[in-house]
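HUMAN:
Just now I want nothing more than another pair of eyes on a protein record. I would be glad if you read both lines and explained how they fit together. I have put the entry right below:
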Amino acid sequence: MVNPHENLKQKIMRQSALQEVQQTVATFKSLEESLDQLLAIELTQLDTQYLHLAELAADIDDAEFSHELYLLANNHLKARRQGLKTMILLCRNARISNSAVLIRLADRQSHLEKEIPDVKD
């Protein structure tokens, strides 16, 4: 025998879970957009810093010191850029995974609603 109260309770719990996953997807999307903006700002700042250090390195008479300063600036720029890109990729992958889960949950919810008749007052 089908318990209408249990069916209603399960339906509410599934809807709540769907909303939570939707909120998670939205959070990751917002974070991804923020990281994209941060990357653009950070790259501009790093490029400016790099140019300054490269100019400074070119003005220094000691060739070895100048070369080391240039390498330091170049490596710092590459490392920071790669770190930010990695964060964006991780966030994007999490959003894609969560979106896929959301689609599967919505499909399952729809299937269950067809299977179990709604409770009428």
Remarks:
- Residues 14 and 100 are 16 Å apart (CA to CA).
